[in-house]
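hey so i finally got around to running the thing on that chain from the lab meeting. sorry it took forever, my laptop kept dying and i had to restart like 3 times. anyway pasting the input first so we r on the same page abt which one it is
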Amino acid sequence: MADALSRKEYSSHWVRTLSTTIKSHLTLKIKEAQLDALKPENVTGETLRGMDKNLETKEDRTHYFMNRIWVPKFRGFREVVMNESHKTRYSIRPGSDKMYLDKKQQYWWPNMKVKTATYVGKCLTCAKVKTGYQQSSGLLQQPEIPKWK
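ok and heres what got predicted. didnt touch it at all, straight out
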């Protein structure tokens, strides 16, 4: 029998609104880091390998790649995005696949899936919760069947 929580449906509009509310301050800081990262002396450290030609600039001067915000390596904002999408109380520590799919809708950087899997793999809290670290309660034994008196 299904309970009320399993039947509850959340619309994607509510989730996107929550995501925008949480991360709205971050886009302004990312835009500043993008401008610094695209300076000629910093472009080599970004490892874009020619993808900087595919970046498009929107009206707010933020650089996008395939309609997703490009997060530069400059100033360490990739780690900030991963921290915010993994450790906030709204995310409830998703696994690497779920975390990647959530971030993929809004952000982009090279090798994002690999970096996300590495980040989640290093999380000690997630490692403790995995089934390999849980102890079983012991051998299962069938209870004794009572006899009718």
